Amino acid sequence: MKKAHTVPVLMYHHVSPSDGAITVSPKHFEDQLAWLSRHGYGSLTTDEFAAHLAGEPVPDKSILITFDDGYLDNWVHAFPLLKKYGYKAVIFVVTSWVKDGPLRPIAGQGQPLPDTPSHAECERRIAQGDSDSVILRWSEIKAMQESGLIEFHSHTHTHTRWDKSERAHEKNALMAQELQQSRQALLENLGSVSEHFCWPQGYFDADYVRTAQQAGFKYLYTTHAFGQNRAGSDPAHIHRFAVRNTTGDSVGRRIQVAAHPVIAPVFNRFKLWKRARRQRA
Questions:
Q1: Residue 281 has what pLDDT?
Q2: What are phi and psi of 217, to 5 degrees?
Q3: What own/partner pairs with CB < 8 Å and gap ≥ 24 does 217-221 have?
Q4: Which of 74, 101, 117, 171 could serve as 162's disulfide partner, Cβ 3.0–4.6 Å?
Q5: What is the CATH number of domain 9-280?
Q6: Is 81 helix (H, G, I), strand (E, B) or coil?
Q7: pTM, full prediction
Q8: What confidence score (pLDDT) does residue 1 get?
Q9: For residue range 16-34, what is the model confidence (pLDDT) as tens digits?
């Protein structure tokens, strides 16, 4: 088996026909999965990804597919396509947003589908206390988990940026509370909680990292795109890049760049240099 040099981690939020930020259409999502399938890429579980970081071999052309927040469209539109192509994925859920209730219809069943609105509308409904209309239910989470294709991990309990709140001086204690509440919700509803955790809104600092590690989380997922997840990489700083609403060919080129042992470091340094230059301007 040819061993993967690095494992690109793909970051999604929405797969929905609704237009808007951080949303991939079902047509483009299927095109992206079809590209992966045609070119021989395989998706890892988090256990396999963790083994890779620890130095154990995983197949060349390995990727990790992740979704943030746990939107209803992940069940309605993304899950049927992942099942069709046989790809595994990870969903980081905000546990206080998840409610109880029966399964809702999914694409391909021939039933009327629930509304899967834009990201802005999802945020508005959640802020008004109506997360159930746009977020996964525990029944849907369990159904996806039982398929063997989808894993669920912590994305905190409320998704709050405490560092920007009126209680910023208490942010570390509040984050510790968030992590405990999230762990408890996952244990009560799914029976287990893992060492994998994704930062809400991508923010973290050294205090937060220590807090997460003390809470039992070892694998910390960032929104930092320009780095490689190689064997021996720091599990407390896992790089992910956002997948755009674009074709499989376009995403495929980005994956190939991210995985290349020579091109990727040059590309990442250039992108980081450009970002630093913009920030200084």
A1: 74
A2: -100, 125
A3: 217/154, 217/179, 218/50, 219/46, 219/49, 219/50, 219/53, 219/195, 221/9, 221/66, 221/92, 221/196, 221/197
A4: 171
A5: 3.20.20.370
A6: helix
A7: 0.97
A8: 64
A9: 999 999 999 999 999 999 9
